[in-house]
TrEMBL record:
One of its GO terms (biological process) is amino acid biosynthetic process. It comes from Bhargavaea cecembensis DSE10. The gene is aroH. It catalyses: chorismate = prephenate. InterPro entries: Chorismate_mutase_AroH, RutC-like_sf. The keyword Ribosomal protein does not apply. Prephenate binds at R7, R90, Y108. It holds the Pfam family CM_1. PROSITE patterns: CHORISMATE_MUT_1. Keywords: Amino-acid biosynthesis, Aromatic amino acid biosynthesis, Isomerase. It is an enzyme of class 5 (isomerase). It comes from the Bacteria. This is chorismate mutase.
Amino acid sequence: MMVRGIRGATCITADEDQQIMQETAALAREMAEQNGLEPEEIVSVIISTTTDITSGFPAKAVRTMDGWEYVPVMCTHEMDVPGALPLCIRLLMHANTTKTQKEIKHIYRNEAVRLRPDLAGAAAEKEEAR
């Protein structure tokens, strides 16, 4: 086993607590599922948001998921760079796994696929090949 980092990102359409909670939980769940992880195998999750997200704490979405109560989670803001993708939530999940870095599936949802089309496309191609 080794600790690996798993990247993920999603975008919301409006700065609303309900959207923040739903999209963050969906992203975290998909990241774990696509990489065959149980909450006990997740070392920690760092969540960043663009500075235009202020209506809720995305970490709360992860902490309140069944089985995820003891996963350490922390929120922070992303750098505020002109022209950056707005209303974006990014996750960096650290997990104990036997997978190689190349086998890790990074998850990009909604408009966030624009951040890493190379990885988002690779995940889609792996799914289609199954």
